[in-house]
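Hi R.,

As promised, here are both runs. First protein below:
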Amino acid sequence: MSTYQNRRNLSIAQELSPLHANCESCFGLCCTALPYAASSDFAKDKAAGIPCSNLQSDYRCCVHTELREIGYRGCTVYDCFGAGQQVSQNTFEGKDWRQFPEAKDAMFSVFPIMWQLHELLWYLTQALHLPAASTIQHELESAYEKTKQMIAQPRDALLQVDIGSHRASVNTWLMRVSELVREEANKQYKHVKGRRTAFGRGADLIGAKLKDANLQGANLRGAYLIATNLRGADLSMADLIGADCRDADVRGANLSECLFLTQFQLNAAKGDCHTKIPAYLVRPSHWIS
């Protein structure tokens, strides 16, 4: 059975399931491999390759239930797209870096590459489930399979991956998907009441007041939505790839059909029980009930 035939038998939630972080199957890679700086998201600095002081011997966090209260909000926002368990259990065959310290440097170097590959796979999976993108099905399938093949490579080969070049190649097709989907959305919603505002890529909307805005089919790629008021806004088919959603107020907003929305972005925003989200994402526990 072909990949396309398999996909038709799976819901997008089923296909994206392996791309959700499973910390129980990871060797604390986000807590070790990645750096962070003292800020509103982190209480202090940490260099790449140095374990967080809160990481226990079993690779669990000793302050997990109080991260936001003690200044580690960034940890509650982060999502690795399942790269952690992939590197830990598959690339390194379940050999953790404490028991096999000779693998530590390679493991910590592979993780950021795997993270980006899994992120691309997340976007491509979404794209392949969009009817409006059917005209470029072959190209998307090709990019999807190439990404999967890269993910399955041995550690040494992964370290040689030109991730920048691959991201650029995949992004060409993701941008085309965005155009096709938003063109369809603009036709579908052209008779809907409410003025729809056009934004360019990377729009600076920090703190903007867009409450109840009609943003159906909007181009919000790479937009700065930091502390933006999006309460009650309709973002159906709006492209949010790369958008910075830190503290964006999405209470009561419709995000259920957003294009390329991630768990990372949801976690960074401020929502509530009335925020409509896609079935394949999880409502953040820190949102207002």
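And here is the second one, sequence first, then its structure tokens:
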Amino acid sequence: MTVAVHESYMQRALELARRGEGYVEPNPMVGAVVVRDGEVVGEGWHERFGGPHAEVVALQRARSAARGATLYVTLEPCCHWGKTPPCTQAILRAGIGRVIVAMLDPFPAVAGRGVAELVGAGISVEVGVLEEQARKLNAPYLKRLMRGRPWVIAKWAMSLDGKIATASGESKWISQEAARQLARQWRGKMDAVVVGIGTVERDDPHLGAPPGSPRTPMRVVLDRQLRLPLTAQLVRTARQAPVLVVHGQDVDPEKREALIRAGCECVAVPVEAGRLAVPALLDELGRRQMTNVLVEGGGQVLGSFFDAGEIDEVRVFVASMLLGGREAVVPLAGRGVAAIAQAVRLRSWQVEVVGSDVLVTGRITEM
């Protein structure tokens, strides 16, 4: 087969893998396609955490046609017992003749051992077809695995002149309903949604995901001095959807205990330069096996993540309006950079129209 043919089948496997987004984390998204005599005879993807892996699903659908066929898979097959049996053993039992892998899995229990097992059993294995796309797909998984921290997506809506609120703090609504609906859908694929106490005091948000979403994100409030009122929507719904209040190490114990009694979880992190330390927060979320985190602001919170160098991806709605005002709120209200040469540039980006707004998405981090 030509390189183009291999890439077309792997592209299909990557498309299938994407269907697992929000359902499989902290596992990676994986897709698989079984091809025999130029015909797809089975395909599948990892559909949910704890469920069968993509290779197993594809092989089950291929049945006897898998014998002597080629298996395309976006990530190295596992070779260890976890929540499911080793995929390498399923591949050997099915009689697959050749395996094409997009990328090796750096997970310590795999890390090349899956490929080695297949090669040792006499199966031809090729690694690296559309590897860059596979790494981009699973960048959140790779970051958490390699750095112990979740993938951080910064989201905001701003006017054409770069303001996320007026000088008085008004921000409803800069983006229109279509954009807000899309943002709510994003929440349903996240492990956590992060805001600051200022946003809670000003807007009293719920931060929930739409019914039927793949995930119920933990709602995280950065509240250094525990100003979060017990009457806030977040607190009143804490028993329906989890709330984590992140505070400094010197707070009123009675306020903390009241929030815990209301159903919130509270955790202390160090304070640096008057702000909660973002790296310590991400370490805590990483210990909780979180893979994707959406930071919704406001400007001080987004600015603190930017200043810490902890934003991996941005999703920005730009509205066709002008707010003006020297005191109007900007999205990254931190220290910023001192020179243009220090500017953080997007490595890959795209633009699309959502309703009457423009959505700019891009990545800062590559894995």
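A quick note on the second one: The longest helix spans residues 3-18. Let me know what you think.

Best,
J.
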